[in-house]
Design a protein that fits this description.
Elements lengths: L5 E4 L7 H12 L5 E5 L10 E3 L6 H4 L4 E5 L16 H16 L6 E3 L4 H8 L6 H9 L5 E5 L4 E4 L9 H4 L2 H19 L5 E5 L14 H15 L3 E6 L7 H4 L4 E4 L2 H11 L5 E5 L5 E4 L16 H18 L3
Parallel strand pairs: 1-2, 1-5, 2-4, 3-4, 5-12, 7-10, 8-9, 8-10
Antiparallel strand pairs: 6-7, 6-11, 11-12
Helix pairs in contact: 1-11, 3-4
Keywords: Cobalt, Cytoplasm, Magnesium, Metal-binding, NAD, NADP, Oxidoreductase, Pyridoxine biosynthesis, Zinc
InterPro entries: PdxA, PdxA_fam
Cofactor: Zn(2+); Mg(2+); Co(2+)
């Protein structure tokens, strides 16, 4: 077990974050201690809570109560109804979690889902999402979003942009950085000494010799060959429609996709409930459940905590990998 607790930021209080945090504690309290960062008022009524000033006490508390590092939010939490008054508190919870990890008081940051519009309306949030905000807090220009489960690890080279913009946004520099950061993350955070990375083509059938697009011939295949010469264990460009069946997945440790849906459709098909978002390239470890705030079911007691549970378990394993033998 990691010596330090995981820091779990509360996310959007009106979403399912508070209730799945409680469910995750009930499932993991004896094996994976974490500190929930947020306003205790926002947790489900009757939740066994102990507020803490020092996250180091979480291990002793976790068996009997959910350790909470309390922050005071401006508004209540009404399920399904985000309150912009809480935006500054949500942002503060993320910043606090980053500070705890970077100062050595927590091992990993795990983040519950946020609601971007509420953050913009209430605090003028200037980032496209969690990942970009964390990159700014970490002082890095480029990070990589990995979706990970037992079945598949996949990284989209381009993320939340229109499909029409992908061919322009996808450059040799971006793809090289994505592969390099992914390879280093697999070594550092997943203990894979010589990671094998499969790279998808951009076009159907990886361009089919130029008949369906020439990017593969013009620069993707030459870049892959260059990276192979440099010692990286990369293959491709592969037709995306044949990369994700079981036999193909056995031949690589992570797949690089060229755009959002090319990456997220296979992992959500293979393991919808247990996928985990991992940010590679940060100066600290971060995981997150691979879903949103789910306002439509918030407060109804039916939210599935599986992805958060897996995010916390993976966070613990990554911390152990980073720390080495205890």
């Amino acid at each position: 077990m990691s010596r330090l607790p995981i820091a779990l930021s509360c996310g959007e209080p009106a979403g399912i974050g508070p209730e799945i945090a409680l469910s995750a504690w009930q499932a993991l309290r004896d094996t994976c201690p974490f500190v929930w960062i947020g306003d205790p008022r926002h947790l489900p009524a009757g939740a066994p809570v102990v507020t803490v000033a020092d996250p180091a006490t979480a291990g002793a508390i976790s068996a009997s109560a959910l350790p909470v590092l309390p922050l005071s939010f401006a508004g209540d939490a009404i399920p399904g109804q985000p309150d912009p008054r809480n935006a500054k508190g949500v942002i503060s919870a993320i910043e606090t979690g980053v500070d705890l990890v970077r100062s050595g008081h927590a091992s990993v940051l795990c983040t519950a889902p946020i609601h971007k519009k509420a953050l913009i309306d209430g605090a003028g949030f200037a980032y496209p999402g969690h990942t970009e905000f964390l990159a700014a807090l970490g002082g890095v220009d480029r990070v990589v979003m990995m979706l990970a489960s037992e079945a598949l690890r996949v990284v989209p080279a381009t993320i939340h942009i229109p499909l029409s913009q992908v061919p322009t946004a996808l450059t040799p520099g971006l793809l090289r950085d994505t592969v390099t950061i992914t390879a280093q993350g697999l070594k550092d955070q997943f203990a894979i000494a010589q990671p094998r990375i499969a790279i998808a083509g951009l076009n159907p059938h990886a361009g089919e010799g130029g008949a369906m697009g020439t990017e593969e011939l013009d620069w993707i295949a030459p870049l892959i060959a260059q990276m192979q010469d440099e010692g990286l264990r990369v293959t491709g460009p592969h037709p995306a429609d044949t990369m994700f069946h079981a036999a193909a997945r056995a031949r690589y440790d992570a797949a690089i996709a060229m755009y959002h849906d090319q990456a997220l459709i296979p992992i959500k098909t293979l393991d919808f409930d247990r996928g985990v978002n991992v940010t590679l390239g940060l100066p600290f470890l971060r995981t997150s459940p691979d879903h949103g705030t789910a306002f439509d079911i918030a407060g109804k007691g039916i939210a599935n905590p599986a992805s958060l549970i897996e995010a916390l378990k993976l966070a613990q394993r990554m911390a152990q990998t980073r720390q080495g033998p205890q």
